């Protein structure tokens, strides 16, 4: 479904991604796990087409990202950033309607189908009751769910062709700065979106327990290298946790024991 092969990215003289290769199957729920500075956000930008690799390839459904028309790619692939900052005081509904941009022609305004898609996306994220609220009055968890709703509207939520083609949702640290209650809400939401729809989800996180609980497959990214890829129970070993986070094996063993209970079945 979504693949990158031997991707290299540098910022100045610093190599951020070093021949990174990974494969995300259709309807996969994949977490890219690694410490701060490991290259997770850069990798997500590469997978979204926002960054072009110096060398290597990125494909969606076997087609190079660079060969897609921008509006077509935006209907297939949406990104939820780590933080959303707004210049104006938009309502929740306005935020979600912004996701409909790839479905509109030049100078075209939103029509009934766009409003229906926006409300379907709000319903899917449990935020339809917030539609008239100002975005900046929401809690952190509510804001995150609304931004996810905007991404769903971008991907065609509630439209007849919404599930006819594989869609990809990319999320950068979706639980960063959220307290435990909202982390659990976002985790449950991502599980529902994945399980009930023809949707592929890729997220980045440094939270091992969140990744183990939510994802069916993990990519361990350390220092710009893929250390391992596979089911959480296979990759979250004592040795690989120690290598990923640069901690002692005995510390990793204690941590691995606490994580294993929350691994997604």
In summary, what is this structure?
The chain is an alpha/beta fold and 265 residues long. The protein has one domain (2-260): 3-Layer(aba) Sandwich (Rossmann fold), CATH 3.40.50.300.
**What's the story with the biggest beta sheet?**
6 strands, mixed
CATH architect. name: 3-Layer(aba) Sandwich
How far apart the termini lie comes to 22 Å
Whole-number count of domains = 1
Mean pLDDT equals 88
Task: Give an account of the 3D structure.
With 265 residues, this protein is α/β, with parallel strands linked by helices. The chain has one domain: Rossmann fold, CATH 3.40.50.300. The protein is 37% helix and 24% strand. The protein has ten helices and ten strands. The protein has a six-stranded mixed sheet with strand order 6-7-8-3-9-10, with helices on both faces. Strands 2-1-4-5 form a four-stranded antiparallel sheet, covered by helices on one side. A hairpin with a 2-residue loop joins strand 1 and strand 2. Helix 5 runs parallel beside helix 6. The longest helix has 17 residues. The mean pLDDT is 88.
């Amino acid at each position: 479904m979504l693949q990158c092969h031997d991707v290299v990215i540098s910022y100045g003289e610093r190599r951020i991604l070093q021949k990174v290769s990974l494969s995300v199957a259709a309807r996969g729920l994949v977490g890219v796990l690694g410490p701060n500075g490991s290259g997770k956000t850069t990798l997500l930008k590469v997978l979204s087409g926002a960054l072009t690799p110096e060398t290597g390839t990125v494909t969606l459904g076997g087609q190079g990202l660079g060969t897609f028309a921008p509006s077509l790619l935006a209907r297939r692939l949406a990104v939820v950033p780590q933080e959303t900052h707004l210049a104006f005081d938009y309502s929740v509904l306005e935020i979600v309607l912004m996701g409909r941009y790839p479905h509109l022609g030049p100078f075209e305004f939103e029509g009934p189908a766009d409003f229906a898609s926006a409300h379907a996306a709000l319903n899917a994220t449990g935020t339809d009751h917030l539609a008239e609220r100002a975005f900046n009055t929401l809690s952190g968890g509510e804001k995150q769910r609304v931004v996810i709703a905007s991404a769903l509207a971008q991907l065609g939520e509630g439209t007849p062709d919404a599930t006819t083609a594989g869609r990809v949702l990319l999320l950068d640290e979706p639980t960063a700065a959220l307290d435990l209650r909202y982390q659990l809400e976002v985790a449950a939401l991502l599980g529902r979106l994945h399980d009930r729809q023809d949707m592929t989800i890729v997220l980045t996180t440094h939270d091992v327990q969140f990744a183990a609980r939510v994802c069916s497959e993990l990519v361990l990214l350390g220092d710009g290298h893929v250390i391992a890829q596979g089911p959480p129970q296979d990759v979250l070993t004592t040795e690989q946790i120690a290598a990923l986070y640069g901690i002692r094996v005995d510390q990793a063993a204690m941590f691995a024991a606490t994580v294993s209970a929350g691994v997604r079945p």
